[in-house]
Amino acid sequence: MNRRDALKHSAAVTGLLLAAGLLPRAALAAYNQSAFDAKTVADVVKAMGAAAPEESKDVSLTAPDIAENGAVVPIGAATTLTNVKRLLVLVEKNPNTLVAAFDVNEAVEPNFLTRAKLGQSSDVYAVAITADGKALFAKKEVKVTLGGCGG
């Protein structure tokens, strides 16, 4: 069985368990639709329940200066801040600004790597949200030479 088939089967099993009432719907409650639908960085942060974002040297973002292929851009987000509850990866000019949201607790190191699709050259943000509602960010411009979202 390959990975794609495994994902299809696990999605089918999850659907059956939900339909049968054997899987709690609270498992889906963590999905924040308003944050995903937000079109600006400030709106995403607000939907996540944080104050206006401020730039900070305690948040780091790793991304290439030039992405040869916008369909698979490696992005890393990390922070040295304490009391962080969530780490976000945002792409300003994507159709959906929110790319990834990672929940953090004392057992999880706030250091994540992911790949994102960038439709065009854009500012990319790593945003750390603390337990007291502060939002701190790092930003970097990534230039895309071959389209990701748009082709």
Automatic annotation (TrEMBL):
Domain spans labelled Ig-like SoxY: 47-149
Span of the signal peptide: 1-29
InterPro entries cross-referenced by the UniProt entry: SoxY, SoxY_sf, Sulphur_oxidation_SoxY, TAT_signal, TAT_signal_bac_arc
Keywords: Signal
Name of this chain's protein: Sulfur-oxidizing protein SoxY
Species this protein is from: Comamonas odontotermitis
